[in-house]
Amino acid sequence: MVISRYALPAMAELWSDQTRLRTWVRVEVLATQAQGRLGRVPQPAVAEISRAPVPTPERVRELERERDHEILAFLSAFCERLPEDSARWVHLGMTSYDVVDTALGHTLARSGDLVLQAATGLRATLATRAQEHWNTLCIGRTHGMHAEPTTFGHKLAGFAFAIDRSIHRLRAARAAVAVGTISGSVGTYSLIDPYVEQEVCRELGLGVEPAPSQVVARDRHAEMVLALATLGACVEQIATEIRLLSRSEIREVEEPRPGRYQGSSAMPHKRNPTGSERLVGLARLLRGHAGAVLEDVALWHERDLSHSSVERVVLPDSMMLAHYQVRAADDLVAELRVDTGRMRAALEQGNGLIYSSAVLAELLERGVEREAAYRGVQAAADGAARGAENFEVLLRRSGLDVGKLRPERFLEHHDVVLKRLEMLSHVAD
């Protein structure tokens, strides 16, 4: 299980031992009640079973050490406080994974809801800050080098749309895992009426595995973990941009700091982007889990147990890590400090080189042959790069007068993206 440092309370509670046993009991009770409506279990026994307390994790573990079978240990612990004539009706016609997988589907669906809620919040924060900084000019960088002017709002808008796509993937994955099966040892309903499965899954808000073996198909779980890993990668993209823009020679953004912040035990001047770095590390864990869960899809025949040990680690950890990562990213973006002055200053650092594409385009529109236009602009750019003079001055000296060069000229059609962002915010609301 993931360490408590990265497990927020609501998600940790869903994956606790006590909640798992409580969910198993609920599946057993709902199945018994459905059996009672079919007339297969006496109503007094249904009432007794419905009132029985949830066993403690400690008692189940104690019995498991004796029996080496978790579900049999759970059933024994659950039935200990039931009269024998009622206990014998528990788990009627069912097999272990009727309980385990149906309960797991319920837990995954509820966990998915928490991650979706967090991702929706992050999308809204990104959209809000993107609109706040829509006209905050900054340099765009390709290959790590100065390219053309853009705005900080445009950067954040790209991240907002990435999170929006992740939300759509998560919704599909949530639907995929929100299924159960109560169909017996090889999925043929040999000892149980399909009505029981229908009623239990309906009460739990689950769909039904259409062609069960003994278990729910594991491609469903893989889809969820892959969606979480992709979401994690999108958060990593945000964190990577913050890390890069936080570097000493750039310092266009800075992570929020507590009042008594200390960035280094040895160097008091340090203001390290540790929050962003943490988000990047968590994304790596999520990607690692995606590989493990894909290995679980191909089980032997109607089932084997090779997936179980993997899922005990990968499923709760992926949910907890993704939930923590997205919530932490939301806080980081919401409080991110943006130095608009340094962003503006960076536009002038290259001696005017950022205008080369606009100059080239204007010369081509005037009818200048492409090779001649490109070489002329390149020669002026090379001179400006060596620090000889400003790019604009060198252009005029070579006879290429293209007027006053301003960064705003690159953003003539920029509002088309803003309208898309506003539509995204409207749909999200």
What does this protein structure show overall?
It catalyses: N(6)-(1,2-dicarboxyethyl)-AMP = fumarate + AMP; (2S)-2-[5-amino-1-(5-phospho-beta-D-ribosyl)imidazole-4-carboxamido]succinate = 5-amino-1-(5-phospho-beta-D-ribosyl)imidazole-4-carboxamide + fumarate. InterPro entries: AdenyloSucc_lyase_C, Fumarase/histidase_N, Fumarate_lyase_CS, Fumarate_lyase_fam, Fumarate_lyase_N, L-Aspartase-like, Pur_lyase. The model has no long low-confidence stretch (mean pLDDT 91). With 429 residues, the protein is mainly alpha-helical. The protein contains 17 helices and six strands. The strands form three sheets. Strands 1-2 form a two-stranded antiparallel ribbon. A two-stranded parallel ribbon has the order 3-4. A two-stranded antiparallel sheet has the order 5-6. The chain folds into two domains: 323 residues, Fumarase C, Chain A, domain 2 (Up-down Bundle), CATH 1.20.200.10; 79 residues.
Outline of the structure:
Helices cover 62% and strands 5% of the residues. The protein has 17 helices and 6 strands.
Write down the CATH topology of the largest domain.
Fumarase C, Chain A, domain 2
> From the coordinates shown, what is the CATH architecture of the largest domain?
Up-down Bundle
Largest sheet: 2 strands, antiparallel
> How much strand?
under 5%
Number of helices: 17
Mean pLDDT: 91
The CATH homologous superfamily of the largest domain is called Fumarase/aspartase (Central domain)
User: What is the topology, as strand order, of the major beta sheet?
Assistant: 1-2
- Count of separate structural domains: 2
Unreliable parts = none
GO molecular function, one term: N6-(1,2-dicarboxyethyl)AMP AMP-lyase (fumarate-forming) activity
Domain Adenylosuccinate lyase C-terminal: 351-422
Catalytic activity: N(6)-(1,2-dicarboxyethyl)-AMP = fumarate + AMP; (2S)-2-[5-amino-1-(5-phospho-beta-D-ribosyl)imidazole-4-carboxamido]succinate = 5-amino-1-(5-phospho-beta-D-ribosyl)imidazole-4-carboxamide + fumarate
EC number: 4.3.2.2
